[in-house]
Design brief:
The chain is of the alpha/beta class and 337 residues long. The chain has helices at 13-21, 36-45, 55-60, 76-85, 100-113, 127-138, 163-179, 287-301, 309-327, and strands at residues 2-7, 26-32, 50-52, 66-69, 89-93, 117-120, 144-154, 185-191, 201-207, 213-219, 221-233, 237-241, 249-257, 271-278, 333-334. The radius of gyration is 22 Å and the shape is globular.
């Protein structure tokens, strides 16, 4: 039985509490938050769980094996360092930290102490994303030519990070997971409309070594909530709409067929293949529960999860490059190999 302390009980923390409590091989022992009123509310729901406003009290409790952090991004590094140094397996909500150097430090601490370090890239545990990865790996949709992701809504505005750091980690983690490739460079443009210091709209281009690209649009000021990813392959195309209640994934048997070599341009004609569209059946399981179970299993048997510290680092490296590109008018920023 793994005893866990959940730190941070604002927007996302209660979801972690609920899902960790649903697991048979895990027990939420302590809930920590700096807001006493928030703890009063959670005590009414979970009267058997201890609460504290002092993070050090969580770390002093020798019975706690692991810590889950759902706190503001700027606190992730320092809280995770303390957790790892006291021998706790550590789960960190996305993004992992504010710099890649901080991520590397956390990975090093976890490796030295043989501790599990995992990041909350929830979407890599969803049935649609796992199906997309399967379709790409099997070659069914052919070579991936480009991916386009849109994550738009009105709010929620953040005070310490821009919209790319807030929303794009979801899309970046999905793209890196399904392609199983490391990007080579990033371009990003954006604009701050509400708070002049924080971009609320960004457009990011992620470039891959085989010439493929991924386009990621993020916005806090769009009238509609959009959660859509399109994967265009040389044989088929896929649309993943997370707002759809049932048919989240649609596969289109459509493509552009390139003709063989011709001697003259006049003879050269593209043809277009139009086939059926189908929506595969996907078993709906709450991905956060799967993610929490993966964390516990990684602690118990040492296997590496799809959202390990290394994967968290890759996402932060893309976000760092996007930030540098933003400050340089959208110029291409190379990523270290």
């Amino acid at each position: 039985m793994i005893n866990i302390g959940v730190v941070g009980c604002g927007y996302w923390g209660p979801n972690l509490i609920r899902n960790f409590r649903s697991l048979t091989d895990c027990r939420v022992r302590t809930i920590c938050d700096t807001n006493p009123q928030r703890l009063d509310y959670l005590r009414q729901i979970y009267p058997d769980v201890e609460t504290t406003t002092d993070y050090s009290e969580v770390l002093k409790d020798k019975s706690i094996d692991a810590v889950a952090l759902a706190t503001p991004v700027h606190t992730h590094h320092d809280l995770a360092v303390e957790s790892l140094k006291t021998g706790r397996h550590t789960f960190i909500e996305k993004p992992m930290a504010t710099t890649s150097e901080q991520c590397k430090e956390l990975i090093g601490l976890a490796d030295e102490r043989r501790l599990t370090l995992m990041v909350g890239h929830t979407f890599v545990y969803t049935a649609p994303v796992l199906k997309i990865k399967e379709l790409i790996a099997s070659g069914e949709i052919g070579e991936v030519m480009y991916i386009s992701s849109r994550r738009l809504n009105l709010g929620l505005f953040q005070k310490d990070i821009n919209v790319a750091w807030d929303l794009a980690p979801h899309d970046v983690s999905i793209i890196l997971f399904i392609l199983d490739q490391d990007p080579v460079s990033v371009n990003c443009q954006g604009k701050a409309h509400i708070n002049p210091a924080i971009e609320d709209v960004t457009n990011m281009t992620i470039n891959f070594p085989n010439g493929g690209i991924a386009l990621v649009q993020s916005s806090w000021i769009d009238p509609r909530k959009i959660r859509e990813t399109t994967i265009v392959g040389s044989k088929k195309m896929v649309v993943y709409d997370d707002n759809e209640p049932l048919e989240k994934l649609k596969i289109y048997d459509k493509c552009v067929e390139i003709p063989p070599h011709y001697d003259t341009y006049a003879e050269f004609h593209f043809s277009y293949h139009y086939g059926d569209m189908y929506a595969p059946y996907l078993k709906q399981i709450e991905p956060l529960k799967v993610e929490c179970q993966q964390f516990i299993e990684s602690i118990n048997d040492g296997h590496i999860s799809p959202s390990s510290g290394e994967e968290g680092l890759k996402v932060v490296q893309v976000l760092e490059a996007a930030t540098r590109s933003l400050k340089n008018g959208g110029a291409e920023v190379k990523l270290a190999s």
